[in-house]
Give the backbone structure.
Amino acid sequence: MKKIILTALFMGILLGGHARNTASPFQAVVAQDGSGDYTSIQAAIDAVPDNRQEPWLIFVKNGSYREHVVIPETKTYVHLIGQDKDKTIIHHLLNVGGKPEEGTEPAKTAFWKHSVHNPFSEVYKFEGSVVKVKADHFYTENISYVNDWGVESQNGPQALAMSSQADCAAFNNCIFRSFQDTWMTSTNDSHRHYVKDCWIEGAVDYFYGGGDALLENCTLYNVRSGSVIVAPCHKDAKFGYIFRDCIVDGNASAADGKQKLGRPWHNSPRAVYIHTTMRIPLAPEGWTNMGAIPGLFAEYDSRDAEGNVLDLSLRKTEYDGRGPNNPPKGSCRAIVTKEEADSYVYERIIPGNDGWDPRTMMEKLPAPQNLKKQGTKITWKAVSDAAGYIIFDNDQVVGFAQKPVFETRFVMKGNLKVRAVNRYGSLGLESAL
């Protein structure tokens, strides 16, 4: 008995003070109610072994996680998997002008104007984002990333929900919400991002930064009149920001025809929208000035909510620069050809020289078949390529399994459900009894 206890304690120390459930396909489980290995996401991140070359899978149960999360450079290959994007929420009341404060309302939160005398006036002096990713090969799905300052105050200053300053960062079926500067991508133009089936919400430059980023089937949701979606600062990016098969939408205030696709922040930024559905009208010029001359701000096959092809003849092509490193005037075309649009695809943008393939991570395994319950025993047919399974009672996680069998310890009160998990932690389709 002593040997068993000591072994369990030793394994707990190795895993950051918590003994892992060996039946789980995840290395760690986060749950606010104490039913997991950790009650905070940052604690689970801190326990990740340094400099991994394989995914470290962290499952986050439904909950409202009010915390500031940083993934350091050494915590590579973190896969952060939420249970449900609408119910698994990482959030904080935070803006770049000041530290996060507990128990404060947006209108009462202290922040300082940007100045050299303000110790918190710049992003790098405080992380400046609810979540900041510094480590390569980060993957996340089914999580809402929310900056409460932006959402509740509907005002500036900068209030980032996500800052992803790393290469090979992938985001699947997530929600990002704030007002100003919701999401900052890496300013290293060699870095790649892949974003699929996500909701990105804001009003001022709410997707900005650098690097090559491909966004597919995403919704860009504007929350005020005169919203501006992107503010890139690309200098040497090969592709820049590419939006394919995305939706531009917004609330009633944003439906007044004054919205802009983007403005050029620094250097020679690039942003191309391909097969975009505009559910709200944009300003005829589509783009606006900021400080630089874009390398390419353009569209192909933009359509209105009814599917009609939009007239792009009035789109902006002449820009005013400012500052010592920008020419005072410049131009770029506003339309790309079909051939060019067809070349801005996953196969050219994402794999790079290392064969990175985040779509493989996102592949959903099929729903388990032949789900049966006999007494306290639950069985189902094994799913090919499954690393394990999650068992639910309605939306409550009741356990994990690596094989297609699970022994319940209590009476199931609702609908029995099982989902397979692939080797990357991504959740498969749901089977219900």
In short: Helices lie at 2-14, 41-46, 148-153, 338-343, 346-349, 358-362. Residues 1-20, 103-125 have pLDDT under 50 and may be disordered.
